[in-house]
């Protein structure tokens, strides 16, 4: 039998579920209660996120893609050819497709926490771009990393989708510094950053009419019921996303409608009626705020692109 599977080099750093357990217990022990958003992305969560990206209210993905399509040649000129292109949180590896022909990287390295989704996406990409050397790295990029990936050559990181928005300002600065270490002096970072805008537009993007974001949010509890044998009564939670003007962020919450006691591994967590579990922050920046943050992490801004309605921005930074 001749198998003709495109080769994907796979590296598994095994971001472990022991982290899931301890981080969930820490979050539910806190007041107010919270859960880390990186755990949204199991197989089902990744599928739901892909659906979110197509929602009419969720302007983020389509606006960023428009910018990548419109200015791809300019972005590629800044990055230079033959770079090692490394995407943080590559998910379905859809956006990078827009840039590959122009960028002509010597290799593409997809990095993601969700192993099955990562492998599927990397394999599909290698199939569709036969000339491209594809690597897949299963890793939790939000943890301080020791990255033994040895490929030589100038590096460009790709961090689209405003994923940086999930991090508190201090942690965002730390992560940007880590990306600087990853690409090295003279390396590049092409990053998508969502912008501050009208509250109604922002809140609609996270409270969509079809309830996909609600399903995405509740899927986190389904995952904890399945993987940690927790007992969340999911039908008795209400999804709600709210703009926090003091902190410049959208907050996603799950409000328990009833009193319930959650048990995980002998730990008990009491939820009062109306009590929230805070599941995500999505920070929004002004161009100036983001540039200040990037420069505090050692990056120089070479170019910024925005759409006509100033909904979203893409930045090319050099370390
Ligand atoms: C992937 C973190 C950028 O904050 O907009 C979308 C995640 N959550 N809808 C975002 C998300 C609810 C998304 N990020």
Automatic annotation (TrEMBL):
The family database entries (NCBIfam families) matched by this protein are listed as:
egtD_ergothio
UniProt domain Histidine-specific methyltransferase SAM-dependent: residue ranges: 21-318
The name of this protein is L-histidine N(Alpha)-methyltransferase
Gene Ontology biological-process annotations: methylation
Q: Name one GO molecular function term.
A: L-histidine N(alpha)-methyltransferase activity
Top-rank taxon, per record: Bacteria
- Provide the alphabetized UniProt keywords: Methyltransferase, Transferase
* Annotated EC: 2.1.1.44
Keyword Methyltransferase on entry: yes
For whether the record's keyword set contains Transferase, the answer is yes
User: Entry's InterPro entries?
Assistant: EgtD, EgtD_Methyltrsf_superfamily, MeTrfase_dom, MeTrfase_EgtD-like, SAM-dependent_MTases_sf
């Amino acid at each position: 039998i001749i198998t003709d599977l495109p080769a994907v080099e796979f590296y598994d750093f095994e971001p472990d579920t022991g982290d899931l357990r301890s981080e969930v217990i820490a979050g539910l022990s806190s007041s107010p209660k919270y859960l880390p958003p990186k755990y949204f992305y199991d197989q089902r969560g990744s599928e739901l996120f892909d659906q979110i990206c197509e929602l009419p209210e969720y302007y983020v993905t389509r606006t960023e893609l428009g910018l990548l399509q419109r200015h791809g040649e300019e972005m590629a000129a800044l990055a230079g050819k033959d770079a090692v292109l490394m995407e943080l949180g590559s998910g379905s590896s859809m956006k990078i497709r827009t840039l590959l022909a122009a960028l002509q990287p010597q290799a593409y390295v997809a990095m993601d926490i969700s192993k099955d989704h990562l492998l599927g996406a990397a394999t599909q990409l290698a199939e569709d771009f036969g000339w491209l050397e594809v690597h897949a790295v299963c890793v939790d990029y939000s943890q301080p990393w020791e990255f033994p990936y040895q490929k030589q050559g100038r590096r460009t990181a790709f961090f689209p989708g405003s994923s940086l928005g999930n991090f508190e300002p201090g942690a965002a600065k730390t992560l940007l510094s880590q990306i600087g270490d990853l690409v090295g002096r003279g390396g590049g970072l092409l990053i998508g950053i969502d912008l501050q805008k009208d509250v109604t537009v922002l809140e609609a993007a996270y409270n969509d009419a079809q309830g996909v974001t609600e399903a995405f949010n509740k899927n986190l509890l389904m995952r904890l019921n399945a993987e940690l044998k927790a007992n969340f009564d999911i039908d008795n939670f209400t999804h709600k996303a709210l703009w926090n003007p003091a902190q410049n962020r959208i907050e996603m919450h799950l409000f328990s409608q009833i009193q319930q006691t959650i048990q995980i591994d002998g730990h008990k967590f009491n939820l009062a009626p109306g009590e929230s579990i805070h599941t995500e922050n999505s920070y929004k920046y002004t161009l100036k705020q983001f540039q200040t943050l990037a420069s505090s992490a050692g990056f120089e801004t070479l170019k910024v692109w925005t759409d006509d309605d100033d909904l979203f921005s893409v930045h090319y930074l050099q370390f």
